[in-house]
Design brief:
The protein has 11 helices and 14 strands. A 6-stranded mixed sheet has the order 6-7-8-3-9-10, with helices on both faces. Strands 2-1-4-5 form a 4-stranded antiparallel sheet. Strands 12-13-11-14 form a 4-stranded antiparallel sheet, covered by helices on one side. Helix 3 packs across helix 4, helix 3 (about 90-100) packs parallel to helix 5 and helix 5 packs parallel to helix 6 (about 165-180). The protein is of the alpha/beta class and about 300 residues long.
Length: about 300
């Protein structure tokens, strides 16, 4: 759906995007994860043809993207960081306006407006002016405006910045639903937990460079940390630890105060066997927790600094 190769963008002497390459397939949610100022927004503006490239190529649904070819841009729904709505129009009027820009009319336009309002849970506010909306509601309507023309690729630039927890949850649920329904999504964020929750693959970007990409499992393997299964238990914990340590795939066990920690490279796959082995001992398992290395650890490992705001 999207192919980017060697994207370059400079602002004076500063290289904001430094030979960035990635792709997004249909039905995939791809995340660009990095701190503010890393080059995420500039990269997606190059993708959408909103900024001129100083190098590299972009193809959308097989079509070259540049300022002259509107057909390629028409397959994209772009949701910018800033609210791109008319405050003195109602929610439905805004969506009808943007739908008309993409050639929708009549019953088709009315149906699409109703559909996207339902998707972002704003059907009951369709006739209300946007300047009466909360920040979170404006963010959700911003997403609806990017969806009204049925794009093949949805591009979201930090859509949850500055919103309340309830609206953030609604936005993330909407994006997850779109991915499950087969839409290609390019999602930028500096929130590690959003990337882990939503994205099939993640590209880690810092100072304009894509320093790594892959699935969550592929990325955390870069830091050489292991998963931990933490069993809260009573009884003879040393016997339990010895039994679990003999399982294939277990690289070590430690006994703590009322718990046994199991180190492994794939905790979720191993967990059923761990619980089965625990049942064969005199110990009684009272709680189970799976702890996996996160993308914050990967970012720190690759860049030498934490994910900064």
């Amino acid at each position: 759906m999207l192919e980017c190769h060697d994207l370059v963008r400079r602002f004076g002497d500063r290289v904001a995007v430094d030979h960035v390459s990635f792709h997004v397939t249909a039905g995939e949610t791809y995340g660009l994860l990095g701190p503010n100022g890393a080059g995420k927004s500039t990269t997606i503006k190059l993708v959408c043809g909103l900024l001129a490239r100083h190098g590299g190529t972009v193809r959308l649904a097989g079509q070259q993207v540049d300022g002259r070819h509107l057909a390629a841009k028409a397959v994209v729904g772009y949701v910018p960081q800033d609210i791109a709505l008319y405050p003195d129009l109602s929610a439905a009027e805004n969506l009808r306006f943007f739908g008309r820009l993409y050639g929708l009319t009549g019953a088709e336009l009315r149906a699409r407006v109703d559909e996207v309002l339902h998707l972002v849970d704003l059907s009951d506010r369709a006739g209300d002016r946007v300047d009466t909306f909360s920040g979170g509601m404006k963010r959700r309507l911003n997403i609806a405006a990017g969806l009204v023309h049925r794009p093949q690729l949805l591009v979201l630039d930090e859509p949850t910045v500055g919103v309340d927890p309830q609206s953030r949850h609604a936005i993330l649920e909407s994006v997850a639903r779109l991915g499950r329904e087969g839409m290609a999504v390019l999602y930028t964020t500096h929130y590690m937990e959003e990337a882990q929750r939503l994205c099939d693959r993640v590209g880690i970007i810092d100072h304009g460079r894509l320093v790594a990409e892959g699935t969550h499992r592929e990325l955390v393997s870069l830091v050489a940390e292991q998963d931990r299964i933490v069993l809260g238990a009573t009884g003879d914990l040393r016997v339990l630890a010895e039994r679990l340590g003999s399982l294939d795939g277990v690289t070590g066990t430690t006994v703590g105060d009322g718990s046994v920690q199991v180190l492994t490279t794939d905790a979720r796959r191993l967990l059923p066997r761990v619980l089965e082995a625990a049942e064969a001992t005199d110990a009684e398992v009272t709680s189970v927790e799976v702890v996996q290395p996160d993308l914050e650890a990967v970012f720190l490992h690759l860049t030498g600094s934490a994910l900064r705001e």
